[in-house]
Amino acid sequence: MTKTIIEPFRIKMVEPLPRTTREQREHFLADARYNPFLLRADQITIDLLTDSGTGAMSTKQWAAMMTGDETYAGSLSYFDLKRVVQDISSMTHVFPVHQGRAAEHLLFRAMNITSGSMVLANAHFDTTRANVEYLGAEAVDLVIEDAYDPASEHPFKGNINLERLERYLREQHERVALVLMTVTNNTGGGQPVSLENLRAVSEIAHKFHKPFFLDAARFAENAWFIKEREPRQHDRTAKDIAQEMFSLADGFTMSCKKDGLVNIGGLLCLNDDALAEKVRCLLILMEGYTTYGGLAGRDMAALAVGLEEVLDEQYLEYRVASTRYFFNMLDHIGVPLMRPAGGHAVYIDARTMYPHIPATEFPGIALANALYLEGGVRAVEVGTLMFGKQGPNGADIPAPLDLVRLTIPRRTYTQSHADYLGEIVQEVYERRSEARGYRVVKQSAVLRAFTAELEPVTTPAYSPTARACAGRT
Ligand code: F0G
Question: How far is the CA of 20 from the centre of ligand 1 (A)?
Fold first, then answer.
């Protein structure tokens, strides 16, 4: 048997990659105010900002686009999508929405989440947290301690701490609106949740009569990790495992831009008829009629095919193996990584890589910018700029970790792209002592990471004496 896991596809349509010089990149980054989010596509050679809506569709998906039914009410593409979603999830009500955050907003509004309410999760993704907090409620993360230790090799670092979950449900019972499990845990390194943990969460939530939802953006990658890593799951199919995951929940939100293998789309699915009625009203008010929810018929047609393709085990094996290939390459160089390899991304521990840059000077931004300058590679900071809080005096309170996410779009880049990335990361790693921090010059009140403007900190040297001389402690 051969050892090499090959891409289970060949390429039929190609798109040129922009190539730039270092001098150009220096200008582009300064124009982007040192925030890679503000770069333009033609300034980037390899874009690892996100795996969201950036993947390639298959020939079958493109063919389905052509037969998408654009009927306003009663679109046949909706019924195709509903059939596929119900085959995987058995949810009674299937609402298409334009993307994941719309599903989150509709769900939280329909559940009457207000100030005083609480959502308990392993970890909220940033839009999920923002949607909870926007309604004045509290988003509580209860992921296991291992999740905060990048070096821990725990196979299911997305698991929730069951004791803390039960304690919150007992002590804050009135306030808790729902329990939400994000599979895989994006903010914690793309780490999966075990089936054992999901079964226990379902049991505990239901014991306290609280609804249990999944944030299913990467459900198929999570199912594959369960198959690979969890005792007694190896002989099951990824689809069978996914079906069990969904069967434990009362509903789910999903950004289909990830494991839906489409460029746009989302789902809100649930069993409760009364809640569904409220969602239906809000959906019509904000997204669109119930049989399209803000999507074109062709988008739903492509999604129906994508949800079937994503559970193809050859695809999942390749997907997880290609992320692991990149992870192993960086590990070999000695780069500090969030361990073990996750599903959709490799996360570099920037705080450990740059011990001379304090968290309040955004080591993650320093690394993301160094990668861009070195090779036109765009990555994303998942650290103090994205998750740090501001103290009463406006000073930054560091996030628990300063990671940089190199996110791998689905079916898009090849092994030689990964090898090129390895060379760029190695170069940046070898010159790590030269990196400098950043300070924010302009930011918005909510989700600042997307639009913040920064500038390099120009302290001449980072020894404690030089910092003190420069008036900074
Ligand atoms: N939940 C998770 C776990 C996500 O990763 C995302 C998006 C969302 C919800 C929101 O979905 O973008 O379709 O509205 N994650 C992207 C990312 C943006 O880059 O990780 P959306």
Answer: 29
The pLDDT, as a whole number, for residue 108 is 98
Pocket lining for ligand 1, CB < 6 angstroms:
50, 52, 99-101, 125, 127-128, 182, 186, 215, 217, 255, 257, 266
Mutate to test the pocket of ligand 1, among 50, 99, 127, 382 (most ligand atoms within 8 A of CB): 127
Which residues of the chain register pLDDT less than 50? 460-473
What pLDDT, on a 0 to 100 scale, did the predictor assign at position 463? 43
pLDDT confidence of residue 459: 62
Among 211, 185, 190, 203, residue whose Cα is nearest residue 120: 211
Ligand 1 atom 12: the closest Cα is on which residue? 100
pLDDT of residue 162: 98
How many angstroms is it from 430 CA to the middle of ligand 1? Answer: 32
Q: Say if CB 224 and CB 232 are below 8 A apart.
A: no
The pLDDT of residue 396 is 86
Instruction: Supply the DSSP string of 25-84, one letter for each residue.
Output: HHHHHHHTTT-GGG--GGG-SEE-S-SSS-SPPPHHHHHHHHT----SSS-HHHHHHHHH
> What pLDDT digit, counting tens, does each position of 223-256 carry?
999 999 999 999 999 999 999 999 999 999 999 9
Tracing tokens 């930054």 back to the chain, one arrives at 396
Query: What atom of ligand 1 comes closest to residue 102's alpha carbon?
Result: 14
- Report which protein residue has its CA nearest ligand 1's atom 21: 100
Q: Which tokens hold the place of 45?
A: 């050679």
Best residue among 47, 104, 186 to mutate for probing ligand 1, ranked by most atoms within 8 Å of CB? 186
**Pairing state between β 176-182 and 118-121:** parallel
Q: Which atom number of ligand 1 is nearest to the Cα of residue 51?
A: 19
Query: Contact, 282 vs 110, CB < 8 A?
Result: yes
Distance 323 CA to ligand 1 centre (A): 19
Cα separation, 126 vs 136, in Å, equals: 15
Q: What spacing in Å lies between the alpha carbon of 303 and ligand 1's midpoint?
A: 16
Tokens matching residue 367: 């690394």
2 contacts: CB under 8 Å, gap ≥ 6: none
- Return the SS3 of 179: strand
Region for residue 400 given its phi and psi (left: phi exceeds 0; alpha: psi -120 to 50; beta: otherwise): alpha
Instruction: Dump pLDDT digits (tens) for 187-228.
Output: 778 899 999 999 999 999 999 999 999 999 999 999 999 999
